[in-house]
Specification:
Structural class: alpha/beta
Protein name: Phospholipid/cholesterol/gamma-HCH transport system ATP-binding protein
CATH superfamily: P-loop containing nucleotide triphosphate hydrolases
Pfam families: ABC_tran
CATH architecture: 3-Layer(aba) Sandwich
Radius of gyration: 18 Å
Number of strands: 10
Bound molecules: adenosine-5'-triphosphate
Number of helices: 8
Number of domains: 1
Keywords: ATP-binding, Nucleotide-binding, Transport
Organism: Salinibacter ruber
Strand content: 15-25%
GO molecular function, one term: ATP hydrolysis activity
Largest sheet: 6 strands, mixed
């Protein structure tokens, strides 16, 4: 279990998070939503120890990740797979080498083991056969899937997704959403998805955390986002409905 306790973070004069507390339960898929710039990625980076809070702390299974020695943090990071916004693939390496990278860095697997595991991960994201290609030769959706294969290579307990469907067409977004759900079920991982794509939220999330103006204003089951009493969340959801059009059944909630 991950516990974000009273976390505040600012950069210079910009206060991004103020006293944010959030529990992330084992096995769930939690979506962190909010307007652009509301601090979703900053919150996610605290969860994996890539940012240190100014105040507050983050506990993973009871361990404060900001106070542990580097070697322990490295071991702990091995339990996380992160799909960064934009994929963050190494363009100079083949797809195979990109997926093999965390295995070489974090594990002591031999070449045969690495080859088998990379193939397994590429199969899981339905990309068998592209191992020799460079990421630059792949479509945006395929690059996201390669990044996903890399994120799962070390068999993480937690997968953090930063805007997994941004920049993708609706059909490719659905493929990514299906994969996220499939991985959550198949590998029984805990998933944290930072997104403003409400289709994604409605199709994959168990619970939703809504960030607004430095605070976590609402946390609850995905079924509650259409009839909650938080005015900021209501207008966020409505704005998304307006953007995609009200003919989309998945977004036509009871309060629409
Ligand atoms: N390392 C940093 N240094 C300075 N400012 C930062 C840093 N990281 C984030 N910020 C600022 O913090 C604010 C929140 O950024 P963040 O990326 O978390 O937003 P977000 O909610 O994920 O937005 P988006 O949906 O557009 O990706 C932004 O104003 C951003 O410029």
């Amino acid at each position: 279990m991950i516990e974000v306790q009273n976390v505040s973070k600012g950069f210079g004069t910009l206060q991004v998070l103020e006293g944010v507390s959030l529990d992330i339960h084992d096995g769930e898929t939690l979506a962190i939503i909010g307007r652009s710039g509301s601090g979703k990625s900053v919150l996610m980076k605290h969860v994996v120890g890539l940012l240190t809070p100014d105040e507050g702390r983050v506990l993973v299974d009871g361990t404060d990740i900001d106070t542990i020695p580097y070697e322990e943090l490295r071991r702990l990071r091995r339990r996380f797979g992160v799909l960064f916004q934009g994929g963050a693939l190494f363009d100079s390496m083949t797809t195979f080498e990109n997926v093999a990278f965390p295995l070489r860095y974090f594990s002591s697997m031999d070449e045969g083991g690495i080859r088998d595991r990379v193939q397994e991960c590429l199969d899981l994201v339905r990309l068998s056969g592209v191992g020799t290609k460079n990421p630059t030769d792949l479509s945006g959706g395929m690059r996201k899937r390669v990044a996903l294969a890399r994120a799962i290579a070390i068999e993480p307990e937690y997968i953090l997704y930063d805007e997994p469907t941004s920049g993708l067409d609706p059909e490719t977004s659905n493929t990514i959403n299906d994969l996220i759900s499939h991985l959550a079920e198949e590998l029984n991982v805990t998933s944290v998805v930072v997104t403003h794509d409400m289709h994604s939220v409605l199709s994959i999330a168990d619970r939703v955390a809504f960030l607004h103006e430095r605070n976590l204003e609402w946390v609850g089951p995905v079924s509650g986002i259409h009839d909650c009493s938080n005015p900021h969340l209501n207008s966020f959801v409505k704005a998304n409905e307006y953007q995609v059009g009200d003919t989309t059944p998945a977004l036509s909630g009871p309060s629409a």
